[in-house]
Amino acid sequence: MTTTRYASSQRFLHWLIAALVALALLSIELKGWLPKGSSERALVKWSHTQFGLSVLLLSLVRLALHRQGKVPPISPPPPRWQMVAARLMHGALYVLTLLVPLLGVAMMFYAGKEWSFAGLPLPTLSDPDTALAHRIEDIHETVGNVLMWLAIAHAAAALYHHVVQRDNTLVRMTWARDRSVDKSNTR
Fold this sequence. Notes:
Blueprint: H1 8-31, H2 39-68, H3 80-111, E1 116-117, E2 120-121, H4 130-165, H5 179-186
Antiparallel strand pairs: 1-2
Family: Belongs to the cytochrome b561 family.
GO molecular function: electron transfer activity; heme binding; metal ion binding
Organism: Dyella telluris
């Protein structure tokens, strides 16, 4: 890792997880447009599960890397309240990228339906509790929506830092050239 950017592994996982979260949300939204019992609807439900479980596994890896890595400084440093808000936002995003898929796993387990990840069959209850599965599904959906809105707020904050505050917040997580190096040439 350079002193101004996250490690390339952290950047890669950040954007891969973001894409998988978006694909999971899009696939489950698409499900509602497809006829019940259709093969297309089954495919998007299966895709949603694959994306969600991938988010869970990759988030565990990213969390482990984050705990070992260093956080590059923001230049110029933002106000303290923004740093506190960023820590809270990142903490919430980490928790939700773990919690939403875990709720999905619990829902599938209690539903008693056959399911798999990457071709590997996953466990279910032999005596399903569909009422509990439906309650967990409602929570999974609600918490998934919270994740979506927090991710949108996270992206908006990064763009605000990049465009308005003109600091390196966004650049630290990309492969783009750091504008802060060029500031002396533009003034």
